[in-house]
Here is the input.
Amino acid sequence: MDQQGFVTLLNEDLQSEYRSIVQYTQHVATVKGPEYQNIIEELKEHLGQELTHATTLAEQIAFLGGVPTVTVPEIPNVPDGAEALALDLDLETTQLERYRERVAQANELGLPDVAEALRPLLQQTQDHVMDLQGALGK
Ligand SMILES: [Fe+2]
Ligand SMILES: [Fe+2]
Here is the structure.
C-alpha cells in the first residue's frame, strides 16, 4: 500500500469517528435505567475522546497531504438500552481492529511519527471496548 491508500483508510477511520460522536450523543441521552447509569457516565467520557480521535485523524490526514473528509456515514437509529450498547460495542470493536492495522501500516510505510500519533486512539479504543463488554456482561 502507498501513502495515498493509507490516507484513504485514515479518512474511513475519520468517518467512523464521526459516527461514534453522533451515536454516543444519541445514546447518552436516550439509554435509561438504573442498570445503565454507570455505563452512561463512561459513554460521556468516550464521547469527549471520540472528538479528540477525529481531530487527530484529521490532522494526520492533512499532514500527509490529504483532505479530511466531512462525510458522516449512515448511522442506525437504535436509541434503546442493550441494543444501543451492543451497537456501540460493534463499532468500537471494528475501530480497534482498524487501528491495529493502521499503526502497523504506518510503521511499514516508514511513518513512525504517524504510528505514534495514532497510539492513543488504539489504547483508548481498547478501553472503550472493555467498558462496553463490562456493561453487557461479555
Ligand atoms: Fe474513537
Ligand atoms: Fe471509542
